[in-house]
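Recall the central idea of this unit: under ordinary conditions, the amino acid sequence of a chain determines the structure it adopts. In this exercise we apply that idea directly, starting from the sequence alone.
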Amino acid sequence: MILATVSCPSGYSATQTAKCVDILSSLYNCGSVGFICSSKYRICSAGVCKTAPTTQLSGATFIPAWVGTSTDDDIQQVSLPVNVTLYNYSTSLVTVSSNGLLCLGSCTIAYANENLPTALVGGPTAFVFWYDLAINDGTGQMVSYSTSGTAPNRITGFEYYLSSTANPSSYYHFLILFYENLPNIVEYVYLEISDGESSAGPSMTYSVDQAFAVAYNTTLQFDTNAGTYIRLG
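Accordingly, the structure predicted from this sequence is:
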């Protein structure tokens, strides 16, 4: 029998039926095709069975209202010790959405993403991963934030570890980074993103209708003043 072949992107491996499967975050193909994590583990992170992914931000603060509870379609304001800047607008008061948005003006609890610009938000907004996401209590899922370093070189980060409302066993782990000495610059770091199908493309608005649009450890850096972006990884 001649098996079909397929070329898979980084983080995926081909099965005998020529299908690319996620071997970095799939509980059923963790590290290699067909390896299933036992029931004591909640996720597969970087190809290793774990109870939660490794936290990236040091000394981070959890969004208080989302601690110890399941959360879906909610927004919370966060007061920062330093201004963040997008499109030449600076503020230290931002609004975090559980659906993968960070707003410098008015925000939305809408879970269904749409074409940009949208009237659902008012003011500069980081659409890092606008999708129907949720926090499930007892899983370690959370959104946290921190500011590190000393002026004028402080870095403010927001770390999201969430799951899909439709599929609680999936998970999405990504960061938003702002640099005090680089106003108008914002970085999106996609550490591990479940879903490799084409539906993942429209959900982040970056690469519409393309399968595997969000590869592991992809970093996108946007210059909101110049209206440009580069892919760093």
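Helices lie at 200-204.
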